[in-house]
Each structure stands twice: as structure tokens, then as C-alpha cells.
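Hey, I was hoping to borrow your eyes for a little while. I'm sending you its amino acid sequence along with the C-alpha cells. Take your time with it, there's no hurry, and the full record follows here.
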Amino acid sequence: MAPVIMDGKKLAQQIRDEVRQRVEAMSSRPGLAMVIVGDDPAGQVYESGKKKDCQQCGIYCDTFRLPREISREELAGLIEFLNRRDNIDGILVQFPLPEHLSARAVQLAIRPDKDVDCVNPVNMGDLMLGVDTFRPCTPAGVMRLLEEYGVDPAGKRCVMVGRSNIVGKPQAMLMLLGNATVTICHTWTPDLAAECRRADILITAAGRAGLITGDMVKEGAVVVDIAINRDARGRLRGDVDFDQVARKASYITPVPGGVGPVTRAMLLENTLKAALRHGKT
């Protein structure tokens, strides 16, 4: 039987519509600031997509494109300026930063109540403790996709392939908070295939195209592919060999069109949440 393809584009549009309706009823618009360091073409795509989303939902968006050689002090000054601006409810900095800049210093500098992608250690700590806080946009998008398709993590065995601070670790924690039994795999895992075959829900964010093959997935597993890679021909691919794995999975996300659109939509939802916490009505 063919798997259910988890349509992130459709869900993302639903979320944007919900955010737009709530923003239209507000007297003060939520505001988002995006900070992009350097001239990476991917950053330009990142910026244009986010701005389009904000425009669609009525959220004010201000973008700061900074030269790659900007100093730590100048970047810190901009973050502090945005922290003080009343019309900015959320601050999003594009990572990774150039090597001469300290990612941790920037993460610490963003005010926790404006940290809409949950990079400040205060918010990450609250996430680990199960306290209501902002959830990182990508892991939150995965949870929303699972909910939309009626996949309840409770009592399930989840395998998370990847342990990054921005995706793997918080994703594992959200699954744990959803009462799944979670295994985190990484480059030192001795037998990745064996671990993956144990998963009722397999989530991967390793950044290696074609890493997860059909023989690594058990029949009926739910497979969520977070990664976005480019193959030798420049095509977007995830970690999952889609054609092979789709023969065995019960639910599967495509790349592109799966987790990515929902990630963007969760940023809008978090910005709205920040605005409401700031007393905007």
C-alpha cells in the first residue's frame, strides 16, 4: 500500500491563514526583524521567502543585511537596538555566522521574549524542562505535521538521526515530551541501520543525501525527513531515499514540500505569540 504523503505546503497555508486572521483582528501589528550576515545567495532566498510570508499575514518585517566583515561589537549593538524597539516582537538571526563572530554571544544577546527560534539558552533550558516557551521552528513544524496527520508519539519508539543544537536535540526533546521513547543517533552510532529499523517514527536531519535507504526502515514506520541537500545534479534531496523508503513507510514527508514550508509557518506563529506576550491586541 502506498504511504500517506505528509503535505507540508497545505498545512503551512492553513497556519498562515490562521495567523493572518488573528493579526487582522489586532490593533497593533506584530513585528519581526531578520538579521543576515554576508551575501550568501541562500540567505537572499531565505530573506525573500520570510518577507513574503510576513506580507501575506500582515506581520511587519524589517531585514538587516550586514557585511560579512562586521565586527562582534557592531552586531551586538544591532541586536541590542532591536531588543529595545517596541515594534519588533521577534528577532531571527540567520546561522551559521562567519567564523570571526560568536554564535553563542549572539544567542545570549537576543532577549528571550523576542527569541522566536528558541536559540537563547534560557528558552532552550525551559524547553528541556517542559516549560511553555518558544519552540524552535523546525522541530515545532515536525510536531505540527505529526499532529495534522494523527500520528501520536505517545508510546512509540522514535529514532532521531542527528544531534544538532538547532534541530536534533530539541526535536528529540519534543518527542520525549510527547511521551515517545527516544534514541538519538549520530556519526558515532555503531550500527545506524539497526537503530533505524527499531523506529516507529524515524526522523532524520543528518545532512547526507540518500543516507536512509529502504532496508533501514521497518514496515509501517512514519518517516520524517528534515534535511535539505543538493545532489550532484543540483536537485534538492533529503536524507531519505524516497522511492525506496516509500515502499515500506506508512507516512512520509517529501523533500521539498514537507517539513520546510511548515518551518516557515511556525516562525509566523511564534512571532504572533511574542506579540501577544508583549501585550499587543
Q: What stands out?
A: Residues 6 and 227 are 15 Å apart (CA to CA). The mean pLDDT is 95. The chain has two domains: 28-111, 137-260. The radius of gyration is 19 Å.
